[in-house]
Queue: 2 jobs
Job 1
Amino acid sequence: MVGRTPEAEDLTQEAFLQLFRKIATFRGESAFSTWLHRLTVNVVLMKLRKKTVAESSLEEATEPDEESGGPRRDFGAPDNLLSGSVDRINLQRAVEQLPPGYRSVFELHDIQGYEHNEIAGIMGCSIGNSKSQLHKARTRLRELLHEAARQRAREARQDAKSEVEQDG
Amino acid sequence: MQCQEFEAVLEQIDGRPLSADAAAHAAQCRSCSAMAADLELIQTLAHELTIPETEPPDRIWTQVRAQLEQEGIIRVPATDARAEKQGAGWFAGIFAWVRRPALVATYAGLIVLAAGLAWEKSIPAPDTASDIAAIPSIHTQDNLNQLEAQTVSDLQASNPEINATLRRDLKIVNNFIAVCQKAVREQPQDETARQYLYGAYQQKSELLAAALAHSRTGE
């Protein structure tokens, strides 16, 4: 979720400290793994939210609003298909660019195979909200993958043009 | 059905087939059809991705334990503390470092300082692990303080990020050491208090060693 080993280690430490401090609050209403997973996600999200407030830049501020906004789509505009221009590596790169909340839901559902009711328990949200966040994550990934494909096409045209100029 | 409604359907179907209305809309709207196909492709490819699992380094557990003991959330039972000293305490921790080249200097520094101070006090220089335990704890604390100052100084120049983390963790462990020292001063005959203090020194030494190893190997 954080993408950097030193931060991940610090947050692992904090999550286990929280686990021991709050173990008495575990009532057995969910699986222990779900409870621990939720605690860990909360620790990470709190850290990321503090970091966004402290270090926000224009680039970060223009990320889609996870609560009320989301990727924009021009309804009715014809779109090119991703098929043939995306593979696992492109997708992995795009996932790493997702905002933390979108990324969490996407990884839990589409990569790790959790159901929406489980994700709702982990993230502390409703099932409907889990579905909404997942859809926004996938839509944002689609945007990122299209942008990457267009960039590759531009670079390929540029390379071809340079070769022609050199040969001429 | 309009495109906005179609997208709302996509959001909620969760892998189920499209309704007749939604399918009919997709058949006549290239944009919505393309979006549905792309999202399905993303979901299919995502199943092939994996999230690598990484084991946290040992110092994480050392730091967690130190903090929890300082907060009084966990306590080491007296019998377990004695077994730690006999089987895997301060001395075993030192010899474990020798297997890691980056920590040899730290170990050598501890032994040299301990031997030097012992000579000054007319105590036979320690040539076995068990003799190190005979050195009064004040010397161990001084040795550790010197190594702490040296390590922090070295890391400040070479790796400020690790240094910042180390200083934060040292504050926790030093507070814990102060608590244990107070307990030993107030009850010098209390074996449990001494075991806690030895354990705290061990945690600090492991912390310093881990920071040095981390900065040298980049792991």
Job 2
Amino acid sequence: MKKSFFCSAALFFLIASKAFGSEVAIGVFAYQGEQAAASDWLPVIRYLNQALPDHHFRLDQFDAIGLRQAIAENRVDLVITNPGYYVTMEAEFGISRIATLDTEDSHPARALGSVVLARADQPGLQSLSDLAGKRVAAVAPEAFGGYLVAARELLGQGVDPDSDLGEVRFVGLPMNRIVEAVQRGDVDAGIVRACLPEQMVNQGKILLEDFRVLSGRRDPDLPCALSTRLYPNWPIAVTRQTDPVLAKAVARALLAMPESGGMSWAVPADYQPVHDLFRELRIGPYAYLREITPEGLIRRFWPWLLGFLAILTGWIVHTVRVEHQVHRRTAELRESLAARDQAEAKMRESQEQMEHLSRLSVLGELSGNLAHELNQPLTTIGTYARTVLRRQESGNLTPEAISEASTEIANEAERAGGIVQRIRHFARKRLATREPVSLPEIAEEARRLIVGMLARAPEVAIENRLTSNCQVLADGAQIQQVFLNLIKNAIDANRDLPIERQNLRIVIEPLDNRVAVHVIDQGIGLDAGQLPHLFEPFFTTKPDGLGLGLPICKTIIEAHGGRLWAEPNQDTQGMCFSFSLPCNELPA
Amino acid sequence: MNYQPEACVVHVVDDDPGLRRSLRFLLDSVGWTVQLHASAEEFLDVVAAPQTQPRCLLLDIRMPSMSGLELQQVLRGRGIDLPILFMTGHADVSMAVQAMKSGAIDFIEKPFNDQKVLDAVAAAIRQSAEAIDDAGRRHAAGAMLALLSPREQEVARLVAQGQPNKQIAASLNISEKTVHIHRQHVMEKAGVSSAAELARLMLRANPTALD
């Protein structure tokens, strides 16, 4: 800002003239003292009084606190102040700019900036971010160009001016003292308004090469060294109480004011950059941003908080809903699993029971023969034993007789034991297993069992046509039961036939990639009407049969992944009962 | 007529060798002669119709191939008469009933009481011995009566029926004196002293002789 100099007599005249016409008080922030301010703004006052002769304009000078109070008490009609105070008063009292000062060599919206100087012989200080922990001189905490503008840039470069600087020394005005302090080395850097160093150079007070501008930049709108972005120039504003007609007249007059002393007025600039500065530094209208109180936080973050609350609520609702659903479905799943387990256990149990029953029923059907079988050795044993006693009584018990009797008794006891053993083995309950089994061996065991239990067992020939090394995984006891059932059925069905027609053949052969077992008789066969019902439960052709044998066999074979079927022999008489089981080819 | 136990033969037919041998061990202990047969067929090969010694058959009712009942029928068909004792298991009651109807004298249930076996065998042997004795007496009576001439046989029958000489003479249309002479010859040849004795002899030789 350039200053013009007037004599103090003229000033006195102006101040005294407020007694004439309509008095209009223009409150001015006099940052450099009353005298300087009066001389600075005199051309404006004079012009207004000329342009609007119905009014009498006068200049009231205030410091920052005084100006605020004057606005609050409606003692001023117009306000001229720096952008920083303007924004603060705008927020607090609703003053409203009508024009922005336009000075020589600058753009009204981009006129103010700061420069941060360090001594050129301090190589460690190149940018504002280097100032962390350093001593810095500035005008005052609330000084716009003398502190705040630079403070914002410091913050932007990661140095919090409130806490990260080693020391901030507020030295007040004039700003020359700051430059001098830097030059002396009292401080590491100093904050001054832009263009001040150039003025001092022009006045011959300093040498530019003694200083370095930190984070220096150039701007086409201001031909001075800069460390900061630029802000709008000073505004002139009206208060809420200012007469609108007057406000309009003043605005029109100011815009029409010719340049005087390097000073004119432009349309009001956008002061948003100043707002941004205050918000970032959390001062002035945005000082509440500093208060980390719940209220402050809410005021500061309420849109975020609201969003967060909405998201949180949504999330909670979603979580609760999902949790509820998961809970419900888990319960359902658990319930259905439990039900399935229960059903499976029940089924397994009843199947085991049925198999056991069927074994017992086969056993029951065999029991007549069994009694006969057991009777033989028991009778023999009893006879020998009593005869020994009898012979002893009659005195004709020879040593040969004793040894014959004892040998026979021992043999017969062993035989009886064997029969009992087989029954127990057969009747014992077993859990289903799957292990490699040999079908020919099982067939042979079944044959021995049947022949051992029956008094007049027919011949059972086993023909093993398996060539490959093929392994069947099965429950041997169950498969044996199937063999027993099929053999027993064939024998029962043909009991009344001549002995040579009762003979059976068991053929074990490969069938595709399975193993097939055929139990072939030469008996009377079955009626065509009986064939379809063979595997139905409780269908029986025997007077004392349960009709469970074949259905159970079918269940067993199918549980092993196989098939059970019956067909009349093609070429000869009789029936052929067959079952197939999957087998796994073993590597040779 | 008394028979020594050794002279009496007990045939045992059972497919179970152990049981067969135990029965020999038992029967042997009281002195019977025991013959063991593994099957009905084997027994049929050796059994003979003429009966000179008391004998009986201990027969298992249930055997592979020919059963005890079948053997019984075959024996009857061949006119071989010998007392049969069936041995049965507990489930063979119906078969045992059938066996008894077909003329078996007893059945013994397995496992059996050895005393019962011995008693039953003794009874069967006794029956067999009596049958042999009966057959012997019948044979002797027949032989004596065979000495009579046809006319004497006619007279003997009428005498045995208790007819007086006068009536016999009228029936045969001969003189009473001739009847008397025939009667004396009949009594001498048959070795009897009364009409009642003659009747007994004739009935022994032929139970229907006086009808």
